[in-house]
Write a structure and sequence with these properties.
Blueprint: H1 31-42, H2 65-87, H3 90-103
Length: 116
């Protein structure tokens, strides 16, 4: 005798669920066939080297004045940081970092662990 003898099989039936017909199938989109038909109608050629028509991108700037100013300042600061970073050699950066660590208080020191 198994522990699953009194189990009822089948789908879960929920109360209050409307009778929805599950046999409804989604329609498939036919993008590729439409594109092929348009290509044949417009040029009729299968030449892959022919230039394709692309819609022109909207080049208008929709940012506010404050956003533009922010972006300009941000770019200037990034450029300044890159110039400052590029001006130092690795040895100078290590020396600067060691000097910074030397100036920190003991609060930031790594505590000793264990007896000793």
């Amino acid at each position: 005798m198994s522990g699953y003898d009194n189990v009822i099989g089948g789908k879960l039936k929920l109360k209050g669920k409307l009778n929805v017909d599950t046999s409804i199938k989604k329609k498939k989109k036919k993008k590729k066939s439409k594109e092929l038909q348009e290509g044949q109608a417009s040029g009729g050629g299968d030449d892959p080297t022919s230039p394709t028509e692309t819609p022109k991108a909207d080049t208008a700037d929709h940012r506010t004045a404050a956003e533009k100013m922010y972006d300009e300042r941000h770019e200037k600061m990034q450029e300044k940081r890159m110039n400052q970073f590029a001006s130092n050699t690795h040895r100078e950066r290590v020396a600067q970092f060691n000097k910074y660590l030397g100036n920190l208080t003991e609060h930031h020191d790594i505590p000793k662990v264990g007896p000793g």
